[in-house]
Structure formats: structure tokens, C-alpha cells
Design goal:
By secondary structure, the protein is α+β, with helices and mostly antiparallel strands. It has two domains: 5-154 and 324-448, FAD/NAD(P)-binding domain; 166-314, Elongation Factor Tu (Ef-tu), domain 3 (Beta Barrel). Helices cover 32% and strands 17% of the residues. It has a six-stranded mixed sheet with strand order 6-2-1-7-17-16, with helices on one face. Strand 4 and strand 5 (94-97) form a beta hairpin. It starts with a strand and ends in a 6-residue tail after the last helix. The relative contact order is 0.17. Bound molecules: flavin-adenine dinucleotide (FAD). The site of flavin-adenine dinucleotide (FAD) has 33 residues, from helix 1, strand 2 and helix 11. The site of flavin-adenine dinucleotide has 33 residues, from helix 1, strand 2 and helix 11.
Length: 454
């Protein structure tokens, strides 16, 4: 008899993980605290409840990274995707979902599965033995959050994401911006040119501050704010404290010389820092914000050099429990210090329903394969699944790690294709073709090990 797999949290990730493992022939126990213990965002006791929007975003598997993730999950017999497809609502190119019947379908299919049982309980400790996946999400219960922080080190678990916007490097105008670290600090040329700098004149700075103050902002949910103001002030709050505050904070113009205009001292400088090992993504340093998404794009494109910028993700500040996965998790999503425990879903530092379910799919398969003692080949980095797992378990910079949506910036570039806006369509098609091939080959090799889900 094989050992059981315990999954804590039956949300997007936990539900998919349970399904994959059960289909592979492993008995699964889902420990879900709702409806006994509630969160401020969930409304029901169903598994896989969609807490806010009812969209799985773009369903375009040729030109969109999240659409590609849909494709990969469908190819892997994913429960979340098949239930979403069964309750699809008209929404143009997006996959919108009728949320209540969707969650009921996921719940019923899991509860009626002969290998799955669900217990209603809050887990408040990391167990010493057994096979476990923790997929307790952005609203992990406080008691469990404390236990995880104790086991991993307090600095390794965040309770808020203070996200600065992330731009695609290729969309930054380097005829305006330049690469330089403040005071040319660093031992290597790479370190001395680690930042991209965008200069502002006084008039540009004043206009930027006006736009920031006038922009639409989102409000915190009730009960969401406890413990938030430690070191992550939104830029608009800094601007409210005084028009010059940002110029003396994240936008200070010191230690930098603009090679395009060496005789002109910028009044302020916006800095962007490399966000991934590939160098395809850059975050705007210190620019966490509660501005609404539409307003952010408008305001950030006022920054010289970012006039045409495209953003892999926009900024935000939310209640969100997540691990510093690049330091804590191995390539199999196991806690390095306790390899019988895996993490999955949003708590690993991915962002979104689809990405969370995707990481559940992988964790479920990897855990089941381990229990069955039939290890799977490494997840291919060129697939959307592989790009995500690689990012959270090593590709991202651990020092600035913040939750991430799937996007083409996480993919290794395809050689020989045109850069910039013009080549985008061909480039994205090349990424998605390559990904599908890699993912299909991986699924085939899973089947060869004899552990493919039924
Ligand atoms: C307010 C809010 C709005 C969001 N809006 C969107 C959106 O519109 N679109 C989008 O794509 N993403 C959104 N997200 C982000 C995120 O993708 C979703 O929260 C997603 O559901 C995460 O999946 P998950 O499986 O990791 O966590 P969840 O789906 O939250 O599942 C975690 C489960 O674990 C349970 N749990 C927690 N602690 C314990 C414990 N100690 N013991 C037992 N069970 C426990 C919870 O009850 C929950 O059922 C939002 C997040 C929040 C907080």
C-alpha cells in the first residue's frame, strides 16, 4: 500500500494537486479550513472558490502566455481547466467562468473521487512526517503563517506584496535612458551598469507628481491592512507627504550622469533594476503603488524612456502570504530544510488563479511520483509551466522577489528573431510553438514512467 498525500488548502492549487495525484493512483486527504474558519475574501465552503474576478484571462494559446498555460493544463488533463471550460461564459478572447457552478463542479468531482477525502480543519503546524503539500494561498491562516515563518525564518515569509511595476526591457527607450549603478558601484562591469536610469527635468517631475496625486487609487479591503506600513509606502503616499519627497527618496538624482546629455543634471531619476536572470524584465525601484491599473500605465508612461513601455505586471499592495521561494524551495517545490513538505499555488510567489492552479498541477504530479517511487524528468524550462517553476525556484532575484504572473519575459529568448514591437507576433508564436512541443514531450515521458494520470 502506498502512503497518503496530505494537501492543506483546497483552493485553485490544492484542488488541482489533489486531482493529479489521485488520478495517478495516490490516496489524497485535503485539509480545508473553510467554512469552519473564514477569510475576508472567500464567501463559500466550496473548493476552488474564485475570490474576486471571474476571469482566467486570455485564452489565446499562440500569442499570450496565460493562454499557453491554459493549453498546457488542458493537455495534462487538468481539473481546473476542464471545470472552467464546462462553465465558460461569453467574454471575447478571454476565458470567463460562471464561478459558483465552477467551484461546485471542482468540489463534487474531488469529493466523489474514490481516492480523495476532504476534512474540514485548519492546520496550524508543519508536520514532522508524511508527504505534504501546503497550498494555503495568499490568505493563509495567521496561526499557520506564524508556524511557517518560524520554520523558514521570519524574513522568508511576506504577509504583503508591495509590488513595483515590471517592464519588458526591450520596450524601454535606451536613446533616452542609460545603464549605470549609482556612483558606478560594483566590482564588475555588469554590476556597474546594473540599473537602467530614466532622467526627468523639473517640468517633467512636476507634471509626474501632479498625475500621481490625481490618479485613481484602489482601497484596502476591511481587515486587510494589519501590519502593512513597514517599509513599503506607496509612491503616491510619499508624494502626498510633500512634492519633493520622491526626489529625496527613490527618485533622487545623485551619483548618476546621463551620457546622452552629460552637461545637464537631471532634476530627478527613475531607476529600474533587473528582475530576472535572463535580463528581460526590469522593475521600477521603490514604485509600489495602490493606483488603479489603467492609471498606472498612463502615469508611468510619462517617465522619459518609458513612453512606449509595456509592463509584464503592474504595481500593487495586497494582503498576500508568500515565501521567498528562490531561497527556500528546491526545483521540485520541496522545502529545502524539510523535503517531505512541498508548497504550491500563490504562496510560492506566483500570482493569479491560473498560475496557482498550474503550480498545484506540478506539485501534485511531483509528490505522487515521489510516493510511487517513479521520479519524473525535470519540467522543461521552455514550457510555460517550466518558465514559472524555474522563475520561483531559482530564476528570480531572491532579494527583490515578488509574486509574478506568467509572461513571455520569463521565457528564454528564441534565437534569430527580430526584437522590438515589430517582431512581437512572430516571437510570441515561436515561444508558444516551442513551449507546446516541450510540454507534450514532457507529458509523453511522464507516461513512459508509467505514472501518467488516468
Ligand atoms: C482579495 C484577493 C483577490 C484576488 N483576485 C484575483 C483575481 O481577480 N484574479 C486572479 O487571477 N487572482 C486573484 N487573486 C490572487 C490568487 O490568484 C487567488 O487568490 C488564487 O485563488 C490563489 O490560489 P491558491 O490555491 O494559491 O489559494 P486559494 O485559492 O486562496 O486557496 C487556499 C485555500 O487554503 C485554505 N487555507 C488557508 N489557511 C489554511 C489552513 N491553515 N488550514 C487549512 N486550510 C487553509 C483557504 O481557505 C483556501 O481555500 C486574488 C487574491 C486575493 C487575496
Amino acid at each position: 500500500m502506498t502512503e497518503k498525500l496530505h494537501i492543506v488548502g483546497g483552493g485553485m492549487a490544492g484542488s488541482e494537486a489533489a486531482w493529479q495525484a489521485a488520478q495517478m493512483g495516490v490516496d489524497v486527504v485535503i485539509h480545508e479550513m473553510r467554512p469552519k474558519v473564514e477569510t475576508f475574501a472567500h464567501r463559500t465552503g466550496s473548493l476552488a472558490e474564485m475570490v474576486c474576478s471571474n476571469s482566467f484571462r486570455s485564452d489565446d494559446d499562440e500569442q499570450n502566455a496565460v493562454g499557453l498555460l491554459h493549453w498546457e493544463m488542458r493537455a495534462a488533463n487538468g481539473l481546473i481547466m476542464s471545470s472552467a471550460d464546462a462553465h465558460r461564459l461569453p467574454a471575447g478572447g478571454a476565458l470567463a467562468v460562471d464561478r459558483d457552478p465552477f467551484a461546485e463542479t471542482v468540489t463534487n468531482r474531488l469529493k466523489s473521487h474514490p481516492r480523495v477525502s476532504v476534512t474540514e480543519e485548519e492546520v496550524i503546524d508543519l508536520p514532522e512526517h508524511g508527504h505534504w503539500i501546503f497550498s494555503t494561498g495568499p490568505l493563509t491562516s495567521p496561526a499557520l503563517g506564524e508556524a511557517i515563518a518560524k520554520a523558514t525564518g521570519a524574513d522568508s515569509l511576506a504577509f504583503f506584496d508591495a509590488i513595483a511595476p515590471i517592464a519588458y526591457a526591450e520596450s524601454i527607450d535606451m536613446n533616452v535612458a542609460w545603464r549605470q549603478s549609482r556612483y558606478d558601484k560594483g566590482d564588475t562591469e555588469e554590476e556597474r551598469t546594473a540599473y537602467i536610469n530614466c532622467p526627468m527635468t523639473r517640468a517633467e517631475y512636476e507634471a509626474f507628481i501632479d498625475a500621481l496625486l490625481a490618479a485613481d487609487k484602489t482601497e484596502f479591503h476591511e481587515g486587510e491592512t494589519a501590519g502593512y506600513f513597514d517599509g513599503c509606502l506607496p509612491i503616491e503616499v510619499m508624494a502626498e507627504r510633500g512634492r519633493e519627497t520622491l526626489r529625496h527618496g527613490p527618485m533622487k538624482p545623485v551619483g548618476l550622469t546621463n551620457p546622452h546629455k552629460p552637461d545637464e543634471k537631471p532634476y530627478a531619476v527613475v531607476q529600474l533594476r533587473r528582475d530576472n536572470a535572463l535580463g528581460t524584465l526590469y522593475n521600477i525601484v521603490g514604485f509600489q503603488t495602490k493606483m488603479k491599473y489603467g492609471a498606472q500605465t498612463e502615469v508611468f508612461r510619462m517617465i522619459p524612456g518609458l513612453g512606449e513601455a509595456r509592463f509584464a505586471r503592474l504595481g500593487g499592495i495586497h494582503r498576500n502570504t508568500f515565501l521567498n521561494s528562490p531561497t527556500l524551495l528546491d526545483e521540485q517545490m520541496r522545502l529545502r530544510s524539510r523535503r517531505h513538505i512541498r508548497f504550491a499555488g500563490q504562496i510560492t510567489g506566483v500570482e493569479g488563479y491560473v498560475e496557482s492552479a498550474a503550480m498545484g498541477l506540478l506539485a501534485g504530479r511531483l509528490a505522487a511520483a515521489e510516493i510511487l517511487e517513479r521520479p519524473l524528468p525535470p519540467v522543461p524550462q521552455d514550457s510555460a509551466m517550466g518558465a514559472l517553476i524555474h522563475h520561483i525556484t531559482g530564476g528570480a532575484d531572491a532579494k527583490t522577489f515578488q509574486p509574478m504572473n506568467v509572461n513571455f519575459g520569463l521565457f528564454r529568448p528564441v534565437d534569430g528573431l527580430k526584437g522590438g514591437r515589430r517582431g512581437r507576433k512572430d516571437r510570441y508564436k515561436a515561444y508558444t510553438d516551442r513551449a507546446k512541443q516541450a510540454w507534450a514531450a514532457w507529458l509523453d515521458s511522464c507516461a513512459e514512467t508509467g505514472v501518467e494520470p488516468a
